[in-house]
Structures are given as C-alpha cells and as structure tokens.
Write a structure and sequence with these properties.
Layout (H helix, E strand, L loop, with lengths): L4 E2 L2 E2 L19 E5 L15 E5 H14 L1 H17 L4 H18 L13 H5 L5
Antiparallel strand pairs: 1-2, 3-4
Helix pairs in contact: 1-2, 2-3
C-alpha cells in the first residue's frame, strides 16, 4: 500500500496517522520533530529536516526512548528520515519502527520514572495503528 504525505501526515485513508504510526484525531495533536539537525544545533523547522508526530504519543514517547535507549532513538529517526526523503509514509519503515518500539517495551515494561509512574504509558501502545 502506498500513502501520500501532506506536510508529513498520511492522508489517503482514515484513520490519519503520523510518521511513527500513531493515530491523529485532531490537527492540534501534531508537533514537529527535528530529524537530521536538532534545534539546539541550529536545525531549521523545515520539511526536509523534520517529522510531524502526535505530540501526546509519538513525540513524547520518542524523547523518552532517546533518554533511555539512544541507539533505538537513532534507529527510529533513521526510519523517519527515509520516509521524509521518499515524501511518503512507508509501511516498511512503520514496521521497523514498530519492531523497535516492541523491543523497547520488552526492555522497559517495568521501568518507572522519577514520579513513580511507568515509563511506558498506555496510550503509547494503544494509539499505534495495527500493522
């Protein structure tokens, strides 16, 4: 299946999802994630340098992964960069991202953060599209 990207969000069929495969119910949920050059390193918020993600699931989760497993964060970022370069969300990239997320969830299913809450929030799992 091929999907078209309009400003980084798949729009050819419902449901709408982002570049990591997370559902988007409202445009207000969309946030920009720097892919290639971070904003702290002078990266611009341009289409070529970023991914549009659900701020409450994918974006939040991606930065949690960055803190705990930088190698996995980089692998996910590489997959989104491939989608960005192709100008479409690619099912093969989404499958690899999902596999990385499943591996992270296996490693950190019992990990708790400072406030005692679980690192892996329920929406991180249930808001992903089925692949």
């Amino acid at each position: 299946t091929r999907f078209r990207m309009v400003t980084g969000v798949q729009t050819c069929a419902l449901p709408i999802f982002d570049m990591m495969g997370y559902l988007i119910d409202d445009i207000k949920e969309i946030s920009y994630h720097h892919l290639l050059v971070s904003s702290k390193d002078g990266g611009s918020a341009s289409f070529n340098n970023g991914a549009l993600l659900n701020r409450f699931t994918a974006h939040d989760y991606l930065h949690a992964i960055e803190r705990f497993e930088p190698r996995m964060f980089l692998a996910i970022t590489e997959e989104m960069a491939k989608e960005n370069e192709a100008r479409q969300i690619r099912i093969d990239c989404l499958i690899r991202i999902r596999d990385i997320l499943l591996e992270f969830e296996e490693l950190h299913r019992d990990t708790r953060i400072k406030n005692g809450r679980k690192l892996i929030k329920e929406p991180y799992i249930i808001r992903r599209i089925p692949l």
